[in-house]
Design a protein that fits this description.
The chain is an alpha+beta fold. The chain has a single domain, classed as Thiol Ester Dehydrase, Chain A. Helix content is about 35%, strand content about 20%. It has 5 helices and 8 strands; from the N terminus they run E-E-H-H-E-H-H-E-E-E-E-E-H. The strands form 2 sheets. Strands 3, 4, 5, 6, 7 and 8 form a 6-stranded antiparallel beta sheet that branches. Strands 1-2 form a two-stranded antiparallel sheet. The chain starts with about 30 loop residues before the first strand and ends in an 18-residue tail after the last helix. The relative contact order is 0.20. The N terminus is likely disordered. This is Thioesterase/thiol ester dehydrase-isomerase. It comes from Staphylotrichum longicolle. GO terms for molecular function: fatty acyl-CoA hydrolase activity. InterPro entries: 4-hydroxybenzoyl-CoA_TE, HotDog_dom_sf.
Length: about 290
């Protein structure tokens, strides 16, 4: 069953955008699109493997030899990747990280693997469930404490609550022990309309720390249910207000993260032009200069 049109008008940043570079993973060729803020423009999403690609490209630059300034430039890019990869990878798609917005750095347990030697698929649904509870609880504790009890009751069958109507998973690669995961949610659409919608969509990603990649994507279709009346109900006003603010934060984070990534791509492109991507470039094979 599809949700009402009022609940599906706007798609989250990064949900369907693709970069079309003239050469692989080039920041200078990415197009920009506007957000709800007319003064801002969000760069298109970077390629899914941009972290591994940047590291490989820096490695190639180093094989052709770098001076002190170029080495410092490469080291700074690698430092940012090492310390900010989660925030940039998730943020570039509008996922908000930090605090208790999801699961941060959870250990993958050996017992979560199956006889095929990788994490059993059912565990991804459990990861998403735990992260979703934290996502809702974060509103109660940190974002909207004035409605603390109402947010908490959403996770119980007392009055107005949430029921999962559909949960789909798209597995990207098999994770194995040992590893750590971080799991985050975002609003796929901006809940709006009159009357308020009776359901909403969430996207979820499971990040592998070992690979610094998204190992699984999940789509959640959630119904707002009145347990006293025994049927669907409209989204409460306090939820609608907070989700609208969350949507704006998602757009801001998308802009921040993609702009940061575009800067890293530009830095590496400049490094390439100064090292191997020039007519007189000679690869440094590690031999002693002038030696026999």
């Amino acid at each position: 069953m599809r949700l009402a049109a009022a609940a599906c008008r706007r798609v989250a940043p990064g949900a369907s955008s693709h970069i079309r570079p003239r050469r692989p993973f080039s920041a200078s060729t990415g197009r920009f699109r506007s957000t709800s803020d007319p003064s801002a423009a969000i760069p298109e999403a970077p390629p899914s493997r941009w972290i591994a690609d940047l590291r490989a490209r820096i490695g190639k630059c180093l094989t052709f030899g770098c001076n002190g300034q170029q080495i410092s430039q490469a080291a700074e890019v690698l430092r940012v990747i090492a310390t900010e990869w989660k925030e940039l990878l998730a943020g570039s798609e509008g996922y908000l990280t930090g605090g208790r917005r999801g699961l941060d750095g959870r250990e993958v347990h050996w017992g979560e693997m199956d006889t095929f030697g990788h994490v059993n698929n059912v565990n991804y649904y459990r990861y998403a469930e735990s992260a979703r509870v934290n996502w809702i609880t974060n509103f109660a504790v940190h974002v909207d404490p004035a409605h603390r009890e109402q947010w908490r009751e959403l996770m119980s069958p007392k009055s107005t609550g949430l029921i999962m109507r559909s949960l789909k998973a798209d597995f990207k690669f098999p994770m194995v022990y040992p590893d750590k995961i971080s799991v985050y949610h975002r609003l796929r659409t901006r809940p709006e309309g009159d009357p308020a919608p009776s359901a909403f969509f969430l996207d979820c990603i499971v990040l592998s720390h070992q690979h610094r990649r998204i190992s699984c994507r999940l789509e959640e279709d959630i119904v707002i249910y009145d347990y006293k009346k025994g049927g669907k109900t409209s989204m409460p006003g306090f939820m609608l207000d907070m989700f609208d603010k969350t949507w704006k934060l998602q757009e801001q984070e998308t802009l921040r993260a993609r702009t940061r990534i575009a800067g890293l791509l530009d830095s590496v492109e400049r490094l390439e032009r100064e090292t191997w991507n020039r007519p007189d470039a000679v690869e440094d094979m590690g031999g002693a200069k002038g030696g026999q």
